[in-house]
Amino acid sequence: MRAPGYGETQPRLDDDRLPVVLVVLDGLGDRPVPELGGRTPAEAAATPVLDALAARGASGWHLPFGWGRAPASELAHWAMFGFADVTFPGRAVLEAVGAGIAVEYGVAVTHAALRTSRSDGDRVWITGRVAPGDADDAAALLAGLSPVLGAHGATLRTLGGRGEALLTLPQHACGAVTDSDPFFEDRHPWLRVRAADPAGEATAEALTALLLDARAALVASPLNAARAERGLPPLDVLTTKWSGVREPIPTFTEQAGVAGAAVTQTRLYRGLAGVLGMAQQHVTPMPDVAADLAARLAVADELIGRGARFVHVHTKATDEAGHTKDPYAKRDVLEAADRGLAGLAELAGRAVVAVTGDHATPSVDGVLHTGDPTPLVVAGPGVRADGVTAFGEVPAQQGWYGVVRASELLPLLFGHANRPVFLGHRATPRPTAALPDDPEPMPLR
């Protein structure tokens, strides 16, 4: 401690603030699997690195929005990054920004995608999506929708070769409408767009009319007729999802109080970092999960060296393994991920590191995401060991943190990093998750 200031008795505090690294294993949480002896894949996997991290630090359960609530990744991350009290712009905005598209402020947008279908009476059932070899057909079909779009005052900008696009409705300022994409294609048909807020009624009506006209044009398309002749399913439905509006929002630094960065893997997280004004470095995913995560941790360390005080590291591999509904595949991916996280041992000596998931993606049962708990482990110089010595849902339940919600995660980590915001002291107009690094100084005349 430094000597007290003039007229003071309390020593001046040493500046021992630490950076924070949050590693998110997408879809980490799971359910007990009979084939794995009633254990989850995380419990069944051999994870010596994460076990050692758990023994060194403290554990708990991450339930982003509480029991039974199954979040999408983007909503979980929005809250995990401290933006739970800020209106979410819609994933369509994030995907577009991640694709390098300039998204207008105050204009309704939605994510559109070409799909295959079958008709059953007065219902249309979605049967598939654009395959890798369909890129040229998809591009031509989207281009062929120009007359329909023009008639409705809308525009389409492609997001890639898989028949995805950003659909913009310049005449509408509210994007609070439901998805026409059913997601659960074996349970729900192509859905009517409905207003999710009274202000979205006009948007819903306009989008419904546009989608019906687009379907008529796609069904009549000679290109789809040619596909049918070649034995390929017509791409004859345009579905929409993730609608919203981009509005001015605080940056991550304004909201959290410190500079944030992300090691990105997908378009979604490039867009999330872009919308929040976070520094980012994209690393193309590698097939070898261990090598991929090791590379991401190395980049995270570089970002810390360049001034980031919070770094997000993400892998989609665990979520993808869960969606295969093969628990052995998820167990094996977790074992590979553990090897790739070996660098956390050294990093935890000079930073607060946390490993968790953004939601559960069970490798069993007929569900996509669930509200089952996902393990959370935190280690670092100021983190006291809580007696938990293994990684997984059952061991984590015995940890000190108990149940942690997404909105509580950043304050927890910044507290361990000697960066707790001092409630009662106002250094910034907005409450921040951490003691701010650079509050505005008094201007001198």
What does this structure look like?
- It is a single chain.
- The protein is of the alpha/beta class.
- The protein has two domains: 20-86 and 250-416, Alkaline Phosphatase, subunit A (3-Layer(aba) Sandwich); 101-245, no CATH class.
- 32% of the residues lie in helices and 18% in strands.
- It has 16 helices and 13 strands.
- It has helices spanning 41-44, 48-56, 73-80, 91-98, 135-143, 146-152, 201-219, 222-229, 252-256, 267-275, 289-305, 317-323, 327-340, 344-347, 393-397, 406-416, and strands spanning 20-25, 58-62, 108-120, 123-129, 155-158, 164-169, 237-245, 260-264, 279-282, 310-315, 352-356, 374-379, 403-404.
- The strands form two sheets. The protein has an eight-stranded mixed β-sheet with strand order 9-8-10-1-11-12-2-13, sandwiched between helices. Strands 3, 4, 5, 6 and 7 form a five-stranded antiparallel β-sheet that branches.
- The model has no long low-confidence stretch (mean pLDDT 96).
